[in-house]
Specification:
Layout lengths: L2 E3 H15 L3 E5 L15 H5 L4 E3 L4 H13 L3 E6 L9 H8 L2 H4 L9 E6 L14 H5 L5 E3 L4 H13 L4 E6 L6 E3 L13 E4 L4 E5 L2 H14 L5 E5 L2 E3 L3 H11 L2 E8 L4 H13 L8 E5 L8 H7 L3 H11 L1
Parallel strand pairs: 2-3, 2-4, 4-5, 5-7, 6-7, 10-11, 10-13, 13-14
Antiparallel strand pairs: 1-8, 6-12, 9-11
């Protein structure tokens, strides 16, 4: 399989959808002439034209609202928001309209809308561009929340997002766009709600998603040298969440650490810890631990930004305390 970047994996899926489904169009700030803030849509305007690739004003609520209306009318739009922080300007449209219209219409209205946004930190983009707010959207019934960690995930999960008749929040970690991995050339889909055992192990389960998956894997490699065998679980989606895979892994290893860039207080890691405690308490040999970001707005300075994020050394320390 070709070794391509996370960015290129996304581009392949978007191009495939534009080529094979006339209902699909893309809209967002700077996605056309500029090629996208992260160069995912570079060249698409020239290839597909203004009817299919639409530059929009800097007005996130308007852009998402237009996407919802187009989806209700039978199209399959993809809205790109520059960062997950900017999605807060459209949160009324996302939470009060996109997520609820199918329910409030008694199933008469579908909203097949894909909302792509960049999340996470590590790229020195400052406090208003760098947070991990995926747990906010995972809290809302009616939304699918997708958090790909690898180029293989990115292509397969985005393909599935376009096949779904529900609104999908598709969150791409800013630090992953240049990362590489093996990706099949042909189209393929990965199911929502199906986690991946990224690394098999027997002593402790490290649960991660998006950027934190790679931190968990690197920590597992360090701990391997100490004789501690970590299983690394890649969640892929937060809503739906593969609780069966989480519980199966914890029942195998009897310990768990949840890793996320998000703030610990009210973060998604707490939801995972509660699920494990409720359904696998008797299998635990130690309390479930969380490795999360510092409880501060994300700093801009590189050294402070890294200090505010969970690091492999933090994961290693927590695992040593358990085993």
């Amino acid at each position: 399989m070709p070794d391509i970047t996370y960015r290129e994996a996304l581009r392949q899926t978007l191009r495939y959808q534009l080529q094979h489904d006339e209902r699909v169009f893309l809209m967002g700030e700077d996605i056309g002439a500029y090629g996208g803030s992260y160069a995912v849509t570079k060249g698409f305007l020239e290839e597909f034209g203004e009817r299919r690739v639409k530059d929009t004003p800097i007005a996130e609520s308007v852009v998402v609202g237009a996407g919802i209306g187009a989806a209700m009318a039978g199209l399959r739009p993809m809205v790109e928001l520059m960062t997950i922080n900017f999605s807060l300007l459209a949160i009324d449209q996302i939470v009060n309209n996109a997520s609820k219209l199918h329910y409030m219409s008694n199933g008469q209205i579908d909203v097949p809308l894909v909302i792509r946004m960049a999340g996470g930190a590590g790229s020195q983009l400052g406090a208003q561009h760098s947070h991990s707010l995926e747990s906010w959207y995972a809290h809302v019934p009616g939304l699918k929340v997708v958090v790909p960690a690898t180029p293989y995930d990115a292509k397969g999960l985005l393909m599935t997002a376009f096949q779904d008749d529900n609104p999908v929040i598709f969150i791409e970690h800013t630090a992953l766009y240049a990362s590489k991995g093996d990706v099949p050339e042909e189209p393929y889909s990965l199911p929502f709600g199906k986690a991946e055992v990224y690394r098999a192990g027997t002593d402790v389960t490290l649960i991660g998603y998006s950027g934190s998956l790679h931190q968990a894997f690197r920590a597992a490699k360090q701990l391997e040298a100490e004789g501690i065998d970590c299983e690394v679980l890649n969640l892929r989606t937060l809503r739906p969440l593969d609780t069966d895979a989480i519980l199966a892994s914890v029942r195998k290893t009897n310990r768990a650490v949840v890793i996320e860039d998000d703030w610990e207080f009210g973060g998604f890691g707490g939801e995972i810890a509660a699920i494990i405690q409720e359904h696998a308490f008797d299998d635990l040999d130690a309390p479930v631990l969380r490795c999360s970001g510092a409880d501060v707005p994300m700093p801009y300075a590189a050294e402070l930004e890294q200090a505010a994020l969970p690091q492999e050394a933090d994961i290693v320390r927590l695992v040593r305390s358990m085993v």
